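re: the backbone from monday

yeah here it is again, tokenized this time
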């Protein structure tokens, strides 16, 4: 089996996810309920939006893609995420009314990091966090849209956590080592992710997820997961392997581009309906009950 240089991690992730099969358990099963507790709040489903950045206005519509999917998140009552942007754009996201976690890049300009966290808190963000898997690029520290990135120590991350009353999420965790460090410094949640294959031959998030879940037992840290999630079946597998909630990503984009808010809402509804069907068909009536006992691997 061969993989292309640019997409190896994503192909490996897809193949691993597809190797996980689901058995049916129908007798005594009932229709499943999808409501989920995430960081102390109740949401309609364990599906999250991705922390996208720099989405344009699609097909001449007035709102940016970021604003459109945020409105869809609000309408569907799910937790919303957004990524790299300036404060002015983030204010527009908050003004949609979506409960939003702002993920800030690991800028070399530390004052910018702190300013964006403070702005998020002052303007009603649900939470804040950092995208640690953009620290490095080929040959050194990453540069994203002209912005230089820098190393982030555990002490630096802890200082961000202690500077805010908001829950802090670390995005881009792909090892037990980093997961435990996040827990020890006070992060309230992590996102297990390889950021759409930034690291060549990265371990699939679902493969490392059970080890992370085991290592974080007793810490009270919630675990989210992304990368390659495109259906309710994918969400189910991640939940069964230890995730508390799961983020869709690029699979949402065609629906967003074509039909805006309505397109995202329909995409989320279809994923939720499939998740509900699979939960009901495997004997799990609540999201909190799901485990890996109905999973099999090829």
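seq for it, each position gets an aa:
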């Amino acid at each position: 089996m061969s993989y292309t240089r640019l997409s190896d991690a994503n192909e490996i992730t897809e193949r691993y996810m597809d190797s996980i099969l689901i058995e049916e358990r129908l007798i005594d099963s009932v229709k499943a309920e999808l409501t989920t507790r995430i960081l102390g709040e109740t949401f309609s489903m364990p599906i999250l939006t991705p922390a996208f950045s720099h989405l344009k206005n699609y097909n001449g519509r007035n709102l940016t893609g970021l604003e459109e999917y945020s409105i869809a998140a609000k309408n569907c009552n799910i937790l919303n995420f957004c990524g790299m942007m300036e404060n002015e754009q983030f204010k527009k996201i908050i003004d949609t009314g979506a409960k939003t976690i702002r993920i800030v890049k690991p800028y070399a300009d530390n004052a910018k990091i702190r300013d964006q966290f403070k702005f998020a808190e002052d303007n009603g963000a649900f939470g804040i966090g950092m995208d640690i898997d953009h620290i490095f690029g080929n040959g050194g520290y990453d540069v994203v849209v002209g912005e230089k990135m820098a190393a982030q120590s555990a002490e630096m991350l802890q200082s961000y956590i202690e500077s805010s009353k908001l829950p802090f999420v670390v995005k881009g965790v792909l090892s037990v080592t980093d997961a435990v460090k996040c827990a020890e410094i006070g992060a309230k949640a992590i996102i297990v992710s390889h950021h759409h294959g930034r690291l060549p031959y990265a371990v699939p998030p679902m493969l490392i997820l059970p080890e992370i879940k085991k290592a974080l037992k007793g810490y009270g840290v919630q675990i989210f997961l992304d990368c390659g999630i495109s259906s309710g079946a994918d969400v189910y597998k991640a939940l069964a392997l230890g995730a508390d909630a799961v983020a869709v990503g690029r699979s949402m984009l065609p629906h967003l581009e074509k039909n805006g808010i309505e397109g995202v809402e329909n995409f989320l509804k279809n994923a939720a309906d499939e998740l509900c069907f699979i939960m009901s068909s495997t004997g799990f009536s609540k999201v909190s009950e799901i485990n890996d006992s109905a999973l099999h691997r090829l």
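The chain is about 35% helix and 15% strand. The chain has a mean pLDDT of 96.
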